[in-house]
Amino acid sequence: MIDLALIKKHLRLDSSFDDGSEDDFLLSLAEAALKLAEQITGTCFIAREETLVLDGFPAGSTLIELEWTPVQNITLVEYTDAQGISQELDVATLRLDARKRVYPVLLPPFGQSWPRTIAEPESVTITAEVGFDILPATVRSAALLIIGHLYENREASTAVNVGELPMGVFMLLNHYYIPRIG
């Protein structure tokens, strides 16, 4: 995430007045800023584990488009086979295509297709490690701008028109923006 000392430096919090009482608040602003950056761009910045649940493997298609980018690793693929028995695929044999595209895709091993599943909802679960290990500098800068905005404007409404987020936020995040419909 973002280092607390960097947040304090960005906000120009004088150490003579800083007793640490706002540390939890500042860290919550950092988390909110990164989540907002994810919402704006459609890109995962916070490293975490995510799960995709499907109603079966795709029929007539070999690829599964994942809902997150970047995907670092597929950790688990579980499914309920046609006989109703829980199975696990060997993730080492699966192919993750994370080349520059909107979202990565998962494919079965070369020359194979996805196994048949029971005709029931939620019969396939894919778990992946997503996000960045090291936050890109432009994203960190955008998050610091958001943190500064939220720190200075702590109320939902004020007597003064606060306006929207600083324009620089969108300029810094533009490289990671994924156009979405719906």
TrEMBL record:
Record-linked Gene3D superfamilies: Phage gp6-like head-tail connector protein
Name assigned to this protein: Phage gp6-like head-tail connector protein
Domain of life (superkingdom): Bacteria
NCBIfam families per record: phage_chp_gp8, put_DNA_pack
Organism: Rheinheimera mesophila
